[in-house]
Amino acid sequence: MEKRYLKNENMLSREENMSLRGKKVIVVGCGGLGGHIIEQLARLGVGHITAIDGDVFDESNLNRQLLSNVENIGKSKALTAKEHIEKVNPDVEVNAIQVFLDESNAEDLIKGHDVICDALDNLSTRMLLQKYAEKLNIPMVYGAIAGWYGQVTTIFPGDNIIGSIYHGSNKGIEQELGNPSFTPALVASIEVSEVVKILTGKGQLLRNRFLMINLLDQEYEVFDL
């Protein structure tokens, strides 16, 4: 095991660490959640990351998006993720795709991955992601953020959780309360921990369980779904 991954070894076995090199994770969204997710996956040594986002950075992203800075305003979020990870861990292959996920491309983009990571900010695309996760038999880790609050759950094919979370609403929680710098970092970290557990078969997942985070009052609750 190369020195880069030595600090992983007390939580993951040598074999588990090595197994991550052959895994493929798709991160849909390279903004507030996605930037943190991509960086953490790469530092852990997940060998293949697909980074999808059709958007470019603007000034309003600077308050929270890890990959944004004053020099890359107007630049592709997906391409920036790839360039960043080449400096963080050049052993990781990042496939940067500068598109928005939609009905016409979702299946082709998602197929072939071991885990899907939701780093979106809208409900309609999130529902589409769950639809094709189901069709392609791929587990999906959901995360959402709004102001002081966050949510995480892990969805396996057949679970169909997102509809029950939103109870017929047509928008995600992100649209209501804005987003500071710290909530995306926390929720992204929990999402990555779920991805690693899926990939290694360790621990208890948030499958059929829903983590609600309230940082204003420092309350963390897990509900059965």
Describe this structure in words.
It is a single chain. The chain is α/β, with parallel strands linked by helices and 225 residues long. It has one domain: Rossmann fold. It contains eight helices and eight strands; from the N terminus they run H-E-H-E-H-E-H-E-H-E-E-H-H-H-E-E. It has helices at 14-19, 32-44, 77-88, 106-110, 123-136, 162-166, 174-177, 182-200; strands spanning 24-28, 48-52, 93-97, 115-118, 140-146, 149-155, 209-214, 219-224. The protein has an eight-stranded mixed β-sheet, sandwiched between helices. Helix 3 links the parallel strand 2 (48-52) and strand 3. Helix 2 (32-44) packs across helix 8 (182-200). The longest helix has 19 residues, at 182-200. The protein is globular, with a radius of gyration of 16 Å. The chain starts with 13 loop residues before the first helix and ends with a strand.
